[in-house]
Each structure stands twice: as structure tokens, then as C-alpha cells.
Design a protein that fits this description.
Layout lengths: L8 H10 L6 E2 L1 H14 L4 H8 L3 E2 L17 H10 L3 E3 L3 H4 L13 E3 L1 H8 L1
Parallel strand pairs: 1-2, 3-4
Length: 124
């Protein structure tokens, strides 16, 4: 979640969720990663992150790996939680690690991995 722009694409996801267009899910692992990143990069946005976390449904973190795609160890839990949660989309800004798998649900157990921008473009 990029929270430095309250009118940005990530913020729009929360506004649309409030209007019941979709549900947002995350795992404890992903939330902790977001907290660490926000505190390092945008500490003034930490309180806003905590407010947004309250609006996100929790997905259990699987205890064993069953990932179907090659990712660095630090990203495996993100994909595994999405897989276990049965989500349709995994939205990320991590082009370096998730980029090779984006928009390839046939290779990602049916999950469409996209940036928020790509996801919103597809809704138009």
C-alpha cells in the first residue's frame, strides 16, 4: 500500500471497497512488511496505515509452502497467503520480484498478479 497520496490508486481501492465493489485481504506477514516499509520510507503515514488495516480482512498464513511460482524467500509468504485465501488478484508494487509473473493466471494457480494501476485499467 502506498499511502503518501490520499487520492492515489491505493487509496481508491479502499474507497471502492467501502462502496462494496470488492473486498481487500491481507495476511499478518504482509501487514508487518507494510508497517516496516512505511516506518522507514514514510513515517508520517504510519497512523493512516493503521486506520486502513482495520478495513482489511485477514487471510491466514499457511504453515507450509505450496507456492507454484518462483519467488524470493521473502515474497513466498505473500503469494502463499493469497493462494490459501482463494483471492482472484494479488496487487503489488514489487515489479522486481513479482513482475515476471504478472498477468499470467495460468502460471499462478489462477491468481492474477498486477499493479494497482493495471487492475484499475482492467476495470475500465
Amino acid at each position: 500500500m502506498h499511502l503518501t497520496n490520499p487520492d492515489g490508486k491505493a487509496a481508491f481501492l479502499f474507497h471502492a471497497m467501502a462502496r462494496s465493489h470488492w473486498d481487500l485481504f491481507s495476511s499478518a506477514y504482509a501487514i508487518e512488511e507494510a508497517r516496516r516499509n512505511i516506518l522507514v520510507k514514510y513515517p508520517t503515514c504510519a497512523q493512516r496505515l493503521e486506520e486502513l488495516i482495520l478495513q482489511v480482512s485477514s487471510v491466514a498464513q499457511p504453515s507450509h509452502a505450496r507456492s507454484t511460482i518462483a519467488l524470493p524467500q521473502k515474497d513466498q509468504p505473500i503469494f502463499e497467503a493469497a493462494l490459501a485465501g482463494g483471492v482472484t488478484h494479488l496487487l503489488t508494487r514489487d515489479l522486481k520480484d513479482f513482475g515476471p509473473h504478472m498477468n499470467q493466471p495460468e502460471k499462478c494457480a489462477g491468481i492474477i498478479i498486477q499493479t494497482v494501476a493495471d487492475y484499475l485499467r482492467g476495470m475500465a
